[in-house]
Amino acid sequence: MTKERIILGIDPGTIVMGYGILMVQGNKPKLETMGVLQLNKYENHYLRLRKIFERVLGLIDQYHPDELAIEAPFFGKNVQSMLKLGRAQGVAMAAALERDVPIFEYAPLKIKMSITGNGNASKEQVAGMLQRLFHIPQEAMLPQLDATDGLAAAVCHYFQTNSPVVEKKYNSWKDFIAKNPEKIRR
Q: CB count, 10 Å around CB of 180?
C-alpha cells in the first residue's frame, strides 16, 4: 500500500495570504489546490489575524495535512511590516498547533532555491517553474503570486523531506539506453 502524505504550504501575509496543498503518494507530488485569502477588505488588523486563523483551521479540517510548511519572515527595513508579517505567520502556526499539525519553517531564499535553483528568483520565476512542474493550465494560475508562493513552501518541504527512490541501476550508457529506449531521441 502506498503511503499518502499531505503538505499544507503557507505564504503568510496581512493583505494576502497564499496557500497550496500538495498530495504526495509514494514519491509523487500532486497539486491538490492552491489559493489566496484576501484580507485588504478588513480595516482592523486583529480581524485580519482572526481570518487567517479561521482560514488555516478550515484548510486543515478540509484537507487533513500531515505537515505545515510555512515561509519564515525575512528581515526587512520596515519594522512595522515585519511585525505584522510575524503576527500573520504566528496566527497560521497557532492554527496548526491547535490541530496538532507539525510545523516546518523555510526561509524565502531556501524556498526559491529549492524550486528554481536560484535563491534570488522572482515570484514570477517561482510561479513559472511550479506551473511547468505540475502542468497547471494558464487559466488556472491566479493573478496573485501569493498562491504559488504558498505552494512553493509545500514543494520545498517535499524536496527537503523526500528521500529519492532509486528505481533502476545502470552499468554503463549502453545499459541505460537498453533499459530506456523511450528517452532516446532519434
A: 11
